[in-house]
Design brief:
The complex is a heterodimer of chains A (252) and B (324). Chain A is α/β, with parallel strands linked by helices. Chain A has ten helices and twelve strands. Chain A has helices at residues 40-47, 70-76, 92-97, 101-104, 110-122, 138-151, 168-185, 196-202, 220-223, 226-233; strands at 2-11, 14-24, 28-33, 55-60, 63-64, 77-80, 156-160, 188-192, 205-210, 213-219, 238-242, 245-249. In chain A, strand 1 and strand 2 form a beta hairpin. Chain B is an all-alpha fold and 324 residues long. Chain B has one domain: ABC transporter involved in vitamin B12 uptake, BtuC. Helices cover 82% and strands 0% of the residues of chain B. Chain B contains 13 helices and no strands. Classes of the chains: A alpha/beta (252), B mainly alpha (324). The A-B interface holds A 45, 48-50, 52, 69-75, 78-81, 84-91, 93-95, 98-99, 101-102, 105-106, 113, 117, 120, 126, 129-130, 149, 152 and B 2-3, 5-6, 9, 73, 75, 134, 206-207, 209-210, 212-217, 219-225, 266-268. Chain B: The chain crosses the membrane at residues 17-36, 48-74, 86-107, 113-132, 139-163, 186-202, 207-225, 231-260, 272-296, 302-321. Chain B: Pfam families: FecCD. Chain B: Belongs to the binding-protein-dependent transport system permease family. FecCD subfamily.
């Protein structure tokens, strides 16, 4: 369970987050949605202790993120930020292998190698395993980073817009994989999404943010409704049930 | 398949490393044996002291530069950006100014070394400790170092203008790196500091690999970034201070050595990069000194030779890289 209580964040005088309180239950896929500048990425950074907490309290599995040793947190929680540049000259398999770092700090064991191979396979990277990261396309690099995050093997996985740069095939593949590990392995996935239909199809719960506050939060079916979507995004859109899936016609 | 190729890559890196070690040993033997004349025991002892100093300084400069570049996520800066060597030059100028050339030459070398070492590490700690207490970020710290460096250089210029020409000549002898007058006593001091610093850097080699992925990714993988970065920077400062206090400023050597090494070994893995950079530095220094003694008749100082040849090699690499 991720518990957020009274968290505010100000950067250079402007308020980014304003007294956010939120509980993300253990297990399942929770989508974080909202317009640009709502504070979604900032909230994710604070949960993942990438930024120091200014006020309030955040715990993951009961561990306060600001005082628990970083390594201990890295064994239960993995984070993938939006577009983290990788400056190092690395092969894909090496990058993915860094996901094992919190568990071993050095030499890979046979079990680690199995996990790395499985992660490469999972994200369709086996053929690219020996390519250098700087020779990949944006989407391939994104998949390598997602694979590294998976390779960390944590109970909590935080992803900031992981579908960026991915084509339809790989975006669907990623969402289905997230769904499967949540269902089969009881993992907790917190994911920032821009495509509301991906959230509608794959998330158990949706948390909507706007102007640094949480304005709606609940089961997917309770959030994917025209009135609530309009209050979040500022325009009206139709919601249809197509072949048993809620579909938002936001582009028309 | 992946396994096999990765393994082969590792073997290739280790092969290159072994080759570099062999070249370093050859250069060392050449330095010790070419043109031996006169009292063998005396000459060999003199050369051994110089060789030890060059190995120490080479290792210290190479390791500190690699670690500094990784922590700062920048492959074209050297620890001299922190203003440590500017402080060193300023201290020497101030001492010559206050004591005159004769007084300066009369300072106990041990006291002199310790004084210089303490001044440089104190400046570094003054820069890094606020960073630990979350008041500074890395960029701001580096900028402060740059500004302090400019301040020390300006003060040095001012004092140098006021110096007597004879004193100025004494000063020139100390502010260019030179291995001709290394005190054997000081080798032990500098050696202990260098061995300790290199041991810490070597133990942190896997952490350094993770730091190279970027701050956010490193934190996500469980590295306590602030503490780790500040700790490593203190190690860098100690290594730079020890080598500078021993022979004088050698900052450019680090830039040259690390870019050369990266091209030779073709990996950013610190388990390979750290020893490879140290070996390159030893080859460059010992080779340079051998050339200086036997081809250039011992005129000038190694620092000048390294910076001159190094600058040309570096430009050549840049142009070659740009054309590819």
């Amino acid at each position: 369970m991720i518990e957020i209580a009274g968290v505010s964040l100000a950067l250079g005088g402007s308020r980014i987050l304003d007294n956010v309180s939120l509980t993300v239950p253990k297990g399942g896929v929770t989508a974080l949605v909202g317009p640009n500048g709502a504070g979604k990425s900032s909230l994710l950074s604070l949960i993942a202790r990438l930024r120091p907490l200014q006020s309030g309290r955040i715990t993951v599995d009961g561990l306060p993120v600001d005082t628990t040793p970083s390594r201990q947190l890295a064994r239960i929680m993995a984070i993938l930020r939006q577009d983290p540049g990788v400056a190092s000259r690395l092969r894909v398999a090496e990058l993915v292998g860094f996901g094992r770092f919190p568990h071993i700090r050095g030499r890979l064991t046979a079990k680690d190698r199995e996990i790395i191979a499985a992660s490469l396979e999972q994200f369709d990277l086996s053929d690219l395993a020996l390519r250098f990261i700087d020779t990949l396309s944006g989407g391939q690099r994104q998949r390598a980073l997602v694979a590294m995050t998976f390779c960390q093997g944590t109970d909590y996985i935080l992803l900031d817009e992981p579908l960026n740069n991915l084509d339809m095939f790989h975006a669907r593949n990623l969402m289905r994989t997230l769904r499967r590990i949540a269902d089969e392995h009881g993992k907790t996935v917190l994911i920032v999404l821009h495509d509301i239909n991906h959230a509608a199809s794959y998330a158990d719960r949706i948390v909507a943010m706007k102007d640094g506050t949480v304005i709606a939060s609940g089961e997917t079916g309770d959030i994917i409704r025209p009135d609530i979507l309009e209050s979040i995004f500022g325009f009206s859109m139709r919601v249809e049930n197509i072949a048993g899936r809620l579909t938002v016609l936001h582009h028309a | 398949m992946t396994e096999v190729v990765m393994q082969r890559g590792l073997v290739r890196h280790e092969g290159r490393l072994a080759m570099m070690a062999a070249v370093a040993v050859l250069v060392g033997v050449a330095f010790m044996t070419i043109g031996l004349r006169g009292d063998l025991a005396f000459v060999l002892e003199l050369r051994a002291v110089r060789l030890a100093a060059m190995v120490l300084v080479g290792v210290a400069v190479a390791v500190s530069t690699v670690v500094f570049q990784t922590v700062c996520a920048n492959r074209i800066i050297t620890p001299s950006i922190m203003g440590l060597d500017a402080l060193y030059v300023f201290c020497q100028t101030a001492l010559v100014f206050a004591l005159s050339g004769f007084g300066f030459a009369g300072i106990d070398p041990r006291l002199h070394f310790l004084g210089n070492f303490t001044a440089m590490t104190s400046l570094a700690l003054a820069l890094f400790l606020p960073m630990l207490r979350r008041r500074f970020d890395l960029t701001l710290m580096l900028l402060t170092g740059v500004v302090l460096g400019v301040l020390f250089r300006s003060l040095t210029t001012l004092l140098a203008r006021l110096l007597d020409p004879n004193d100025f000549a004494v000063l020139q002898g100390t502010v260019f790196a030179s291995f001709n007058a290394v005190e054997p006593d000081l080798l032990l001091f500098a050696g202990v500091i260098t061995v300790a610093g290199v041991a810490i850097a070597w133990r942190a080699r896997h952490v350094l690999d993770v730091l190279a992925l970027g701050t956010d990714t490193a934190i996500g993988l469980g590295v306590a970034w602030r503490g780790t970065a500040a700790g490593l920077l203190v190690v860098v400062a100690a290594l730079v201070s020890a080598s500078t206090a021993l022979v004088g400023p050698m900052a450019f050597l680090g830039l040259l050595v690390v870019s050369l090494t990266e091209r030779i070994v073709g990996t950013n893995r610190h388990a390979i990069l750290l020893p490879a950079a140290a070996l390159t530095a030893i080859i460059v220094l010992v080779g340079g000194q051998t050339v200086l003694q036997h081809a250039l008749g011992g005129e000038g100082s190694l620092g000048i030779v390294v910076e001159f040849v190094g600058g040309i090699v570096f430009l050549a690499i840049l142009f070659a890289g740009g054309r590819r």
